[in-house]
Specification:
Blueprint: E1 4-7, E2 12-15, H1 24-33, H2 36-52, H3 60-74
Antiparallel strand pairs: 1-2
Family: Belongs to the Fe(2+)-trafficking protein family.
GO molecular function, one term: iron ion binding
Pfam family, one: Iron_traffic
Length: about 90
């Protein structure tokens, strides 16, 4: 695997993920098209969504919802946001 990847979110070459973040073909696709930066940002949003919306990863509907939100995020489309979330001040 190369050290960089053309990131579908940022439309430029950025550091690659060191390994597929999901099992199977979807994980391979993400590793080949999503940068580490974009994936880290998605994981932060995913964590906020899970916490604020009280999602259970045992629930197939919650997992499907998160996969949909992931695709939207990585494609630069509007995603749901955690209600009441205030980004930390710099």
């Amino acid at each position: 695997m190369s050290d960089t990847v053309f990131c579908r979110k940022y439309q430029k070459e950025l550091d690659a993920l060191p390994f597929p973040p999901l099992p199977g073909a979807k994980g391979q696709e993400i590793q080949q098209t999503v940068s580490k930066q974009a994936w880290d940002e998605w994981q932060a949003l995913q964590t906020r969504l899970i916490n604020e919306k009280h999602l259970s990863l045992l629930d197939p509907d919650a997992r499907a919802y998160l996969m949909e939100q992931m695709e939207r995020f990585l494609d630069n489309r509007e995603t749901d946001q955690a209600e009441g979330y205030v980004p930390p001040s710099q």
